[in-house]
Amino acid sequence: MAKTQLNVRLDEDTVEAARQAAGNRHMSLQEYIEHLVKSDTDPVRKAFLASAANVIEEFGDLIEERVREPRG
């Protein structure tokens, strides 16, 4: 796929945070930003997160209760 150059202005703290996050993931800054945009616009991811939110809303109390139960 062809690439298009994009110039973005960010404050220094945001740039440093992005560089650190990219480095932690062993990605270039370009790869990291591309990953963020793709993740944010992925319809499958959005559907999954909506479903997960529904599960937590419906069963969150039960899940918390089970987590607090002593194991043995």
From TrEMBL:
One Pfam family cited in the UniProt record for this chain: DUF6364
Highest taxon in the source lineage: Bacteria
InterPro entries: DUF6364
Name by which UniProt lists this protein: Antitoxin
Source organism: Actinacidiphila glaucinigra
